[in-house]
């Protein structure tokens, strides 16, 4: 549906969007996620043709946004972060005005406006001035103007900014409903919003794409996503040996628990294979080893942790003093998982080496 290739936008010496490439398929809700200033809105403006790119191409349903702007824009409905509303118009007057701008045939205009007002639930407000509406209703009017003409792609830039929790839930349900007939691209820096309604997530940082996958697969990106954390009482070597004998356990880390006042209490991290639940096996293994488990917890990795992990990696790579092999780019969850696993292995080795040096000094 949409193909973005090597998209670049520069403002003088500042690069807002840096060689961004991705594809959008029909019938899904895409979440464009990134911190403030990451380049999300700039990218949206280039996709819609509102601003021109410095380099790269955007092709919408076979039409280049720069070479065939009119044909390309017919495929898009756009809601900017600040809805383009005329406050001295009533809701109905404004939607008629937008319908004329979009060249909707007069025979279809009235019925289409009524249908869309019903869909976004603003029919009761149609004769009220827009300046007298709450922010939530103004957002609904903004979405209505984006949907007018039934374009195949709806692009929403920060659609829930400034809304209260009730309004946010209502707008989210409305966006989910759009999926039935449209492809939706949703730009946001709100993690819960993206994880709640999107089928596919693209994470952007400093104008670059650092990860793209489904929310479920992105759960595998963060370090420790397949870890089991334990607090166990017993002998260190006995605990390690018993856990390493458990099927599907990949690695075991046993450290003295500094918070416990009891002797012989260890903090244990068990790395497991993907999509494997070893809690029952671990329990019986510890029983047989006569090592009681005081606590057991599966690590749940949130989208927030993944987001911070990836954008922090990008931030470090921007630092010339810390830059090694350049920015990590992850096309899929598997690519990012390999990178993060290698990173964790290096950190673990550094910790162990540090511990050995401390022992020698003692």
Question: Mind explaining what this structure looks like?
Answer:
The chain is an alpha/beta fold and 362 residues long. It has helices spanning 40-47, 69-73, 91-101, 106-120, 135-147, 165-178, 191-197, 215-218, 236-244, 279-288, 303-318, 333-361, and strands at residues 2-11, 14-24, 29-33, 55-60, 63-64, 76-79, 153-157, 183-188, 200-205, 208-213, 227-233, 249-256, 265-272, 293-298. The strands form three sheets. A six-stranded mixed sheet has the order 6-7-8-3-9-10, sandwiched between helices. A four-stranded antiparallel sheet has the order 2-1-4-5. A four-stranded antiparallel sheet has the order 12-13-11-14, with helices on one face. A hairpin with an 8-residue loop joins strand 12 and strand 13 (265-272). The termini are far apart. Residues 312-324 have a biased composition (Basic and acidic residues). GO terms for molecular function: ATP binding; ATP hydrolysis activity.
The CATH homologous superfamily of the domain at 2-75 and 151-218 is termed P-loop containing nucleotide triphosphate hydrolases
Distinct helical segment count:
12
* Low-confidence blocks of residues: 320-331, 358-362
Task: Report the biggest beta sheet as strand number plus sense, adding barrel if it closes.
Answer: 6 strands, mixed
- Specify the CATH class of the domain at 2-75 and 151-218: Alpha Beta
CATH fold type of the domain at 2-75 and 151-218 = Rossmann fold
Q: Which second-level CATH architecture of the domain at 2-75 and 151-218 applies?
A: 3-Layer(aba) Sandwich
Q: Mind telling me the C-alpha Rg?
A: 26 Å
Distance between the termini: 64 Å
**Helix/sheet category:** alpha/beta
What is the strand arrangement across the widest sheet? 6-7-8-3-9-10
Query: What are the secondary-structure elements, in order, as H or E?
Result: EEEHEEHEHHHEHEHEEHEHEEHEHH
Average pLDDT, rounded to a whole number, is 82
Overall outline: elongated
């Amino acid at each position: 549906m949409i193909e973005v290739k090597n998209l670049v936008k520069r403002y003088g010496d500042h690069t807002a969007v840096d060689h961004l490439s991705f594809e959008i398929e029909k019938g899904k809700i895409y979440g464009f996620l990134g911190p403030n200033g990451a380049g999300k809105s700039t990218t949206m403006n280039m996709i819609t043709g509102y601003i021109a790119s410095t380099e790269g191409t955007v092709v919408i349903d076979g039409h280049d946004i720069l070479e065939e702007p009119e044909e390309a824009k017919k495929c898009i409905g756009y809601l900017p972060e600040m809805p383009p509303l005329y406050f001295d118009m009533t809701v109905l007057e404004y939607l008629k005005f937008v319908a004329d701008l979009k060249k909707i045939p007069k025979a279809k205009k009235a019925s289409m406006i009524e249908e869309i007002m019903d869909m976004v639930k603003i029919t009761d407000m149609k004769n009220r001035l827009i300046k007298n509406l709450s922010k939530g209703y103004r957002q609904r009017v903004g979405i209505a103007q984006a949907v007018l003409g039934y374009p195949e792609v709806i692009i929403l830039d920060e659609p829930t900014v400034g809304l209260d929790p009730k309004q946010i839930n209502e707008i989210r349900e409305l966006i989910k409903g759009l999926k039935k007939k449209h492809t939706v691209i949703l730009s946001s820096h709100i993690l819960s919003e993206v994880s709640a309604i999107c089928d596919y997530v693209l994470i952007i940082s400093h104008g670059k794409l650092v990860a793209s996958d489904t929310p479920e697969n992105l759960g595998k990106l963060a370090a420790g996503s397949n870890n089991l954390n334990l607090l166990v009482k017993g002998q260190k070597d006995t605990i390690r040996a018993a856990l390493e004998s458990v099927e599907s356990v990949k690695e075991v880390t046993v450290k003295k628990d500094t918070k416990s006042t009891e002797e012989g209490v260890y903090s244990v991290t068990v790395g497991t294979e993907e999509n494997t639940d070893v809690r029952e096996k671990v329990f019986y293994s510890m029983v047989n080893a006569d090592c009681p488990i005081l606590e057991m917890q599966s690590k749940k990795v949130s989208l927030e942790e993944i987001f911070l992990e990836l954008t922090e990696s990008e931030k470090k790579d921007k630092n010339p003093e810390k830059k090694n092999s350049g920015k990590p780019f992850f096309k899929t969850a598997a690519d990012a998982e390999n990178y993060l696993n290698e990173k964790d292995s290096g950190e673990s080795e550094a910790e162990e080496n540090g511990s050995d040096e401390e022992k020698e000094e003692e």
